Amino acid sequence: MIKILNASNKKFDSYFDQFLSNRKSKIRLNSGLIEKIIKDVKKNGDKSVLRYEKKFSGNSNIILDSKEITKKISLLDNKVRKSIDIAFNRIFKFHSKQKIKNIYYKDKLKNRLSYKYLPIESVGIYVPGGTASYPSTVLMNAIPAIIAGVKRIVMVSPNKKGKQNPGILYAAKKCNIKEIYSIGGAQAIAALAYGTKKILKVNKIVGPGNLYVTAAKKEVFGDVGIDMVAGPSEITVVGDRFSNADWISSDLIAQAEHDELSQSILISKDKNLINKVQNSLINQLKSLPRKLIASKSLNKNGILIYTNSDKKLVEIVNRLAPEHLELNLRNYKKIVNKIRNAGSIFLGKYSTEAFGDYLAGTNHVLPTSGSAKFSSGLSVYDFYKRISYINLSKKGIETLGPSVITLANFEGLEGHARSVKLRIGRK
Predict the structure, then answer these.
(1) CA 128, 120, 96, 343 torsion: positive or negative?
(2) Catalytic residue among 324, 326, 353, 364
(3) Mean pLDDT by 10 residues, the chain (427 residues)
(4) Does the annotation mark 323 as catalytic?
(5) Catalytic residue among 219, 323, 326, 353
(6) What stretch of H or E contains 327?
């Protein structure tokens, strides 16, 4: 049964910190196997990728041709197709509002300084396809890249029981993704990072995955860019006496069914709501197809917290820095501006997190494990890099040069000072 904690208890803070620490320790993975796979793929390319695919998923066909893709898409239910269309349009519209602006500045000495944003040239998108398949992940990762102007977008996704999900393929078609490879795990990340004869390497890898995928992304970072180290999923719901216990329970379960390591938390000043939610969770789990996963998640990583003050409530939320935060409150305006750390905030009783996963329009690739304290969700901005330009005038270097020389000498870098001295007073 999901645990109930009282934030007024003197031992709450230490227990709560330990609770969060225990989950983080479960998420960490010994990277020995990952390093081996990456080195192997880096050295032997397609041969190694295929060997690991056969070993881990029984897959012997890593490249999908256009005829095969078209055939699989034709099997997709029309309702699913239309829902993907709606999601595509909403996500595209919201992300198209994210504008970048080049900066140009000229000072009184006629020195010219500027920032120019350029789209990343190539991006690899990892789309999970093991225990569940996510067309929404294709849209969330590809659409911002498209809007930024990324020229080459590559998609990798593991097959499920020897088959690729038609929803994923249709979403890829909507995004005009031409390069699609039926591979997963650390071998897919290595192939994207270092390239093989069949798969050209990319400049940045984005998209969620299991612990092995996440560990592999960490391992290749530096040789290639990554979006973030994220997952498993998290939700924190703040409820009051006006909240519907069944609605809140369903939102907690919606995250818990993702993964045994997912984290679902309720915080409330109403003990009655907490008890109702606990009972509702038990009842709703009975008919859930992914009952086993959700039950383990809630029992091991779920928690219901009672607090008697808004101040403590806000403090707990900001300590958690949850991936998803629902303020299921009659008057959420009372505390919303005090929340500093969260990936995405859902306001009011109708704003279920599941809507954000699919077609609210905002991105569902969000920081987890407290990283919302210093990072943000995926956006168009993640698919740009910027270059600074410096154009000094003769007057500029002669006026400002002495200060540069002083600082360089102070830091013991005489070569720096000399490179400026040689230019002062010269034509």
Answers:
(1) positive
(2) 324
(3) 92 92 81 92 96 88 87 94 98 97 97 97 91 87 98 93 87 96 96 97 95 93 94 94 98 95 97 97 96 96 96 97 97 97 98 96 95 97 97 96 98 97 85
(4) yes
(5) 323
(6) strand 324-328
